[in-house]
Design a protein that fits this description.
CATH superfamily: Winged helix-like DNA-binding domain superfamily/Winged helix DNA-binding domain
CATH class: Mainly Alpha
Distance between the termini: 8 Å
Number of domains: 1
CATH topology: Arc Repressor Mutant, subunit A
Strand order of the largest sheet: 1-2
Number of helices: 5
């Protein structure tokens, strides 16, 4: 399932990313489907630091592809900001089962 998920994400993400990054993006989507998560939680789940470079590499492509969304889109810098799975993200995951 993880390999199929990485392939599907790769077809949706505009940037060229390697298989390892795609696999980690898939891990994020699977984890965030249960509840919205803070940026720091998502990156920690991947054993990454809460650094802007990691956000640009792992979270922003998923957001741009419409798979993740901020819970407070009008307040992107809010300390209460979380990321949630979109309907498109849910459809992607359900297509694998």
């Amino acid at each position: 399932m993880a390999h199929n998920l990485a392939g599907l994400i790769g077809s949706l993400v505009a940037d060229q990313v390697d298989d390892q990054v795609l696999g980690m993006m898939g891990k994020l989507l699977l984890w965030v489907q249960t509840e919205p998560r803070k940026r720091s939680e998502l990156l920690k789940h991947l054993s990454l630091s809460n650094h802007n470079d990691n956000v640009k590499k792992y979270l922003e492509p998923l957001e741009a592809a419409g798979l993740l969304a901020k819970t407070l889109p009008d307040k992107p810098q809010s300390p209460k900001q979380k990321y949630s799975l979109t309907e498109k993200g849910r459809a992607l995951l359900s297509s694998l089962t």
